[in-house]
Amino acid sequence: MQQEFYKYQGTGNDFVMIDNRQQTFDKTDTKQVAFLCDRRFGIGADGLILLENHKDYDFKMVYYNSDGNESTMCGNGGRCLVAFARDLGVIEGNTIFEAIDGVHHASIEGDIVKLQMVDVNTIEQHENHVFLDTGSPHHVEHKDNIEDFDINTEGAKIRYGAPYNEEGSNVNFVKKVSNDTFTVRTYERGVEGETLSCGTGVTAVAIAMHATKETANSLINLNVRGGELKVSFEEDNGVYKNVWLVGPAKHVFKGSI
Ligand SMILES: N[C@@H](CCC[C@H](N)C(=O)O)C(=O)O
What we know:
This protein has 257 residues and is of the alpha+beta class. It folds into two domains: 4-114 and 249-256, Diaminopimelate Epimerase, Chain A, domain 1 (Roll), CATH 3.10.310; 123-247, Diaminopimelate Epimerase, Chain A, domain 1. 18% of the residues lie in helices and 44% in strands. It has four helices and 17 strands. It has a 17-stranded mixed beta sheet that branches. Strand 15 (227-236) and strand 16 form a beta hairpin. The radius of gyration is 17 Å and the shape is globular. The site of the ligand N[C@@H](CCC[C@H](N)C(=O)O)C(=O)O has 19 residues, from helix 2 and helix 4. The ligand N[C@@H](CCC[C@H](N)C(=O)O)C(=O)O binds at residues 13, 65, 71-72, 74-77, 136, 170, 188-191, 195, 198-201. Belongs to the diaminopimelate epimerase family.
Protein backbone atom coordinates (compact mmCIF):
# COMPACT_ATOMS: atom_id res chain seq x y z
CA MET A 1 0.00 0.00 0.00
CA GLN A 2 1.30 3.50 -0.85
CA GLN A 3 1.90 5.79 2.13
CA GLU A 4 1.21 9.50 1.60
CA PHE A 5 3.56 11.68 3.62
CA TYR A 6 4.69 15.28 4.14
CA LYS A 7 8.16 16.46 5.08
CA TYR A 8 8.67 19.40 7.50
CA GLN A 9 11.73 20.91 9.20
CA GLY A 10 12.21 23.22 12.17
CA THR A 11 15.71 24.77 12.24
CA GLY A 12 16.96 21.70 10.41
CA ASN A 13 15.41 19.10 12.74
CA ASP A 14 13.40 17.23 10.09
CA PHE A 15 10.33 15.06 10.27
CA VAL A 16 8.12 12.81 8.17
CA MET A 17 4.51 13.82 8.89
CA ILE A 18 1.58 11.50 8.40
CA ASP A 19 -2.09 12.42 8.61
CA ASN A 20 -3.39 9.50 10.67
CA ARG A 21 -6.87 10.85 11.41
CA GLN A 22 -8.32 7.74 9.75
CA GLN A 23 -6.08 5.42 11.85
CA THR A 24 -4.59 3.73 8.77
CA PHE A 25 -0.95 3.74 9.94
CA ASP A 26 0.37 0.58 11.65
CA LYS A 27 1.81 2.03 14.87
CA THR A 28 3.40 -1.28 15.91
CA ASP A 29 5.63 -1.49 12.82
CA THR A 30 8.94 -0.17 14.21
CA LYS A 31 10.84 -1.33 11.10
CA GLN A 32 8.53 0.64 8.80
CA VAL A 33 9.03 3.85 10.83
CA ALA A 34 12.82 3.33 10.77
CA PHE A 35 12.65 2.66 7.00
CA LEU A 36 10.65 5.85 6.32
CA CYS A 37 13.22 7.87 8.34
CA ASP A 38 16.23 6.23 6.65
CA ARG A 39 18.16 8.84 4.63
CA ARG A 40 19.45 6.33 2.07
CA PHE A 41 16.70 3.75 1.64
CA GLY A 42 13.63 5.78 2.70
CA ILE A 43 12.47 9.43 2.84
CA GLY A 44 14.98 10.55 5.45
CA ALA A 45 14.25 12.35 8.74
CA ASP A 46 15.23 12.66 12.41
CA GLY A 47 11.76 11.43 13.37
CA LEU A 48 8.24 10.60 12.25
CA ILE A 49 5.07 12.21 13.61
CA LEU A 50 1.46 11.13 13.34
CA LEU A 51 -1.32 13.72 13.49
CA GLU A 52 -4.40 12.08 15.01
CA ASN A 53 -7.87 13.14 16.10
CA HIS A 54 -8.46 13.93 19.77
CA LYS A 55 -11.81 13.98 21.52
CA ASP A 56 -11.13 17.10 23.62
CA TYR A 57 -8.36 19.00 21.79
CA ASP A 58 -7.59 20.02 18.19
CA PHE A 59 -5.37 16.99 17.54
CA LYS A 60 -2.99 14.47 19.09
CA MET A 61 0.77 14.17 18.44
CA VAL A 62 2.44 10.74 18.31
CA TYR A 63 6.24 10.97 17.97
CA TYR A 64 8.82 8.35 16.87
CA ASN A 65 12.60 8.77 16.73
CA SER A 66 14.37 7.74 13.50
CA ASP A 67 15.30 4.41 15.13
CA GLY A 68 11.58 3.54 14.81
CA ASN A 69 10.69 3.70 18.51
CA GLU A 70 7.99 5.92 19.99
CA SER A 71 9.62 8.43 22.33
CA THR A 72 9.05 11.35 24.65
CA MET A 73 8.29 14.96 23.62
CA CYS A 74 9.88 16.55 20.59
CA GLY A 75 9.76 20.36 20.73
CA ASN A 76 10.71 21.03 17.11
CA GLY A 77 8.44 18.20 16.02
CA GLY A 78 5.58 19.78 17.99
CA ARG A 79 6.22 23.10 16.26
CA CYS A 80 6.29 21.40 12.83
CA LEU A 81 3.07 19.52 13.66
CA VAL A 82 1.33 22.82 14.39
CA ALA A 83 2.38 24.04 10.91
CA PHE A 84 1.17 20.72 9.40
CA ALA A 85 -2.20 21.02 11.22
CA ARG A 86 -2.60 24.58 9.91
CA ASP A 87 -1.67 23.51 6.36
CA LEU A 88 -4.22 20.64 6.51
CA GLY A 89 -6.92 23.08 7.67
CA VAL A 90 -7.28 21.39 11.07
CA ILE A 91 -6.47 24.64 12.92
CA GLU A 92 -6.11 28.35 12.21
CA GLY A 93 -3.81 30.64 14.24
CA ASN A 94 -4.12 29.21 17.76
CA THR A 95 -4.34 25.64 18.96
CA ILE A 96 -4.36 23.26 21.91
CA PHE A 97 -3.17 19.70 21.32
CA GLU A 98 -2.07 16.70 23.33
CA ALA A 99 1.35 15.08 23.20
CA ILE A 100 2.94 12.36 25.34
CA ASP A 101 3.95 14.90 28.04
CA GLY A 102 0.52 16.54 28.28
CA VAL A 103 -1.48 19.37 26.78
CA HIS A 104 0.29 22.10 24.75
CA HIS A 105 -0.90 25.55 23.72
CA ALA A 106 0.60 26.92 20.52
CA SER A 107 0.17 29.62 17.88
CA ILE A 108 1.37 30.09 14.32
CA GLU A 109 1.89 33.23 12.22
CA GLY A 110 3.50 32.72 8.80
CA ASP A 111 6.11 30.09 9.49
CA ILE A 112 6.84 31.13 13.09
CA VAL A 113 5.44 28.73 15.67
CA LYS A 114 5.25 29.44 19.41
CA LEU A 115 4.88 26.28 21.47
CA GLN A 116 4.28 26.16 25.20
CA MET A 117 6.45 23.57 26.90
CA VAL A 118 5.89 21.71 30.19
CA ASP A 119 6.69 23.42 33.51
CA VAL A 120 10.04 22.37 34.94
CA ASN A 121 10.39 22.01 38.70
CA THR A 122 13.32 19.62 39.10
CA ILE A 123 16.77 20.75 38.00
CA GLU A 124 19.70 18.57 39.04
CA GLN A 125 22.87 20.62 39.30
CA HIS A 126 26.02 18.47 39.27
CA GLU A 127 29.67 19.55 39.27
CA ASN A 128 30.10 19.43 35.48
CA HIS A 129 26.59 19.26 34.12
CA VAL A 130 22.91 19.93 34.70
CA PHE A 131 20.14 17.35 34.15
CA LEU A 132 16.49 18.24 33.63
CA ASP A 133 13.37 17.04 31.82
CA THR A 134 11.64 19.46 29.47
CA GLY A 135 9.31 16.79 28.06
CA SER A 136 12.39 14.73 27.17
CA PRO A 137 15.47 14.12 29.35
CA HIS A 138 18.45 16.43 28.79
CA HIS A 139 22.05 16.51 30.00
CA VAL A 140 23.55 20.02 29.62
CA GLU A 141 27.31 20.58 29.69
CA HIS A 142 29.60 23.52 28.83
CA LYS A 143 31.96 23.07 25.88
CA ASP A 144 34.54 25.78 25.07
CA ASN A 145 35.59 24.34 21.70
CA ILE A 146 31.95 23.88 20.64
CA GLU A 147 32.66 24.30 16.91
CA ASP A 148 35.40 21.75 16.84
CA PHE A 149 34.95 18.49 18.76
CA ASP A 150 33.68 15.00 17.99
CA ILE A 151 30.10 15.35 19.26
CA ASN A 152 29.00 11.91 18.11
CA THR A 153 31.75 10.16 20.11
CA GLU A 154 31.51 12.41 23.20
CA GLY A 155 27.71 12.52 23.09
CA ALA A 156 27.36 8.74 22.80
CA LYS A 157 29.72 8.21 25.78
CA ILE A 158 27.46 10.35 28.00
CA ARG A 159 24.15 9.08 26.52
CA TYR A 160 25.05 5.41 27.12
CA GLY A 161 27.10 5.94 30.30
CA ALA A 162 26.01 6.02 33.96
CA PRO A 163 23.57 7.17 35.24
CA TYR A 164 21.59 7.20 31.99
CA ASN A 165 22.58 3.78 30.57
CA GLU A 166 20.28 2.08 28.05
CA GLU A 167 17.27 4.37 28.61
CA GLY A 168 19.57 7.26 27.82
CA SER A 169 19.47 11.01 27.79
CA ASN A 170 19.83 13.60 25.07
CA VAL A 171 23.12 15.46 25.46
CA ASN A 172 23.52 19.22 24.89
CA PHE A 173 26.85 21.02 24.67
CA VAL A 174 26.66 24.76 25.24
CA LYS A 175 28.87 27.83 24.89
CA LYS A 176 27.96 31.28 26.17
CA VAL A 177 28.03 33.99 23.48
CA SER A 178 26.64 36.87 25.56
CA ASN A 179 24.33 37.40 28.53
CA ASP A 180 21.24 36.35 26.60
CA THR A 181 22.67 34.18 23.80
CA PHE A 182 24.10 30.67 23.78
CA THR A 183 25.38 28.32 21.07
CA VAL A 184 24.10 24.75 21.43
CA ARG A 185 24.90 21.42 19.77
CA THR A 186 22.80 18.37 20.63
CA TYR A 187 23.37 14.62 20.44
CA GLU A 188 19.92 13.01 20.32
CA ARG A 189 19.09 9.60 21.68
CA GLY A 190 16.96 7.60 19.24
CA VAL A 191 18.73 9.31 16.35
CA GLU A 192 22.06 8.33 17.92
CA GLY A 193 23.92 11.26 16.53
CA GLU A 194 23.95 15.04 16.26
CA THR A 195 20.83 16.72 14.90
CA LEU A 196 20.86 20.28 13.53
CA SER A 197 18.53 21.42 16.33
CA CYS A 198 16.59 20.06 19.31
CA GLY A 199 13.62 22.00 20.73
CA THR A 200 13.38 20.31 24.13
CA GLY A 201 17.20 20.55 24.18
CA VAL A 202 17.45 24.33 23.74
CA THR A 203 14.60 24.71 26.26
CA ALA A 204 16.68 22.67 28.73
CA VAL A 205 19.78 24.76 27.99
CA ALA A 206 17.94 28.08 28.50
CA ILE A 207 16.53 26.94 31.85
CA ALA A 208 19.83 25.36 32.95
CA MET A 209 21.75 28.56 32.12
CA HIS A 210 19.27 30.59 34.18
CA ALA A 211 19.26 28.13 37.10
CA THR A 212 23.08 28.12 37.24
CA LYS A 213 23.17 31.96 37.02
CA GLU A 214 24.96 32.08 33.65
CA THR A 215 22.17 34.48 32.69
CA ALA A 216 19.60 36.57 34.53
CA ASN A 217 17.49 36.99 31.37
CA SER A 218 14.17 35.22 30.91
CA LEU A 219 14.23 35.49 27.11
CA ILE A 220 17.16 33.52 25.70
CA ASN A 221 18.47 33.26 22.13
CA LEU A 222 19.82 29.89 21.11
CA ASN A 223 22.07 29.45 18.07
CA VAL A 224 21.87 25.92 16.75
CA ARG A 225 23.40 24.24 13.67
CA GLY A 226 20.16 24.77 11.69
CA GLY A 227 19.26 28.33 12.69
CA GLU A 228 18.02 30.30 15.68
CA LEU A 229 15.42 29.61 18.35
CA LYS A 230 14.13 31.60 21.31
CA VAL A 231 13.01 30.35 24.71
CA SER A 232 11.18 32.45 27.30
CA PHE A 233 9.97 31.54 30.79
CA GLU A 234 8.96 32.78 34.23
CA GLU A 235 10.86 31.55 37.26
CA ASP A 236 9.26 31.38 40.68
CA ASN A 237 11.21 29.80 43.55
CA GLY A 238 13.13 27.45 41.26
CA VAL A 239 10.03 26.45 39.29
CA TYR A 240 10.01 27.37 35.58
CA LYS A 241 6.54 28.13 34.23
CA ASN A 242 5.03 29.70 31.13
CA VAL A 243 7.89 28.22 29.09
CA TRP A 244 7.70 29.00 25.35
CA LEU A 245 9.80 27.70 22.48
CA VAL A 246 9.69 29.95 19.39
CA GLY A 247 11.06 29.53 15.88
CA PRO A 248 10.39 28.66 12.25
CA ALA A 249 8.69 25.47 11.05
CA LYS A 250 8.54 24.84 7.29
CA HIS A 251 6.95 22.48 4.81
CA VAL A 252 9.63 20.96 2.57
CA PHE A 253 7.80 18.58 0.21
CA LYS A 254 5.06 15.96 0.02
CA GLY A 255 5.04 12.60 -1.67
CA SER A 256 4.07 8.96 -1.45
CA ILE A 257 6.24 5.92 -0.90
N1 LIG B 1 14.33 16.65 18.45
C1 LIG B 1 13.50 16.68 19.56
C2 LIG B 1 13.70 15.70 20.67
C3 LIG B 1 13.21 14.32 20.26
C4 LIG B 1 13.17 13.31 21.39
C5 LIG B 1 14.52 12.78 21.74
N2 LIG B 1 15.28 12.28 20.63
C6 LIG B 1 14.31 11.67 22.79
O1 LIG B 1 14.02 10.53 22.43
O2 LIG B 1 14.41 12.00 23.97
C7 LIG B 1 13.13 18.07 20.02
O3 LIG B 1 13.11 18.97 19.16
O4 LIG B 1 12.79 18.26 21.18
